């Protein structure tokens, strides 16, 4: 007969603190990732989990001009 081993111990696969939000912890260490504020992201741009968690709200007002310089 042969025996079966069911548990070799815990497998530790924790994210780095730089990939963990600063208001959360990973393996007991405080996260250091600071998320961008919604007001600092262009309106209609999505980000976060699955690219749909948050939507930006920044709207640029006033005249915006684009100038092209051409050499002769």
Can you characterise this structure?
The protein has 72 residues and is low in regular secondary structure. It has a domain at 17-55. Helix content is 0%, strand content 11%. The protein has strands at residues 25-26, 29-30, 46-47, 54-55. The protein has a two-stranded antiparallel ribbon with strand order 1-2. A hairpin with a 6-residue loop joins strand 3 (46-47) and strand 4. The protein is elongated. The mean pLDDT is 80.
What is the element layout, followed by pairings?
Blueprint: E1 25-26, E2 29-30, E3 46-47, E4 54-55
Antiparallel strand pairs: 1-2, 3-4
Number of helices: 0
Specify the helix fraction band.
under 10%
Low-confidence stretches: none
Spatial order of strands in the largest sheet: 1-2
Average of pLDDT = 80
Structural class: little secondary structure
How big a fraction of the residues is strand?
5-15%
Rg over alpha carbons: 23 Å
Q: Sheet with the most strands? A: 2 strands, antiparallel
Q: How do the SSEs run, as a string of H and E?
A: EEEE
Morphology: elongated
**Quantity of strands, as a count:** 4
Termini gap: 87 Å
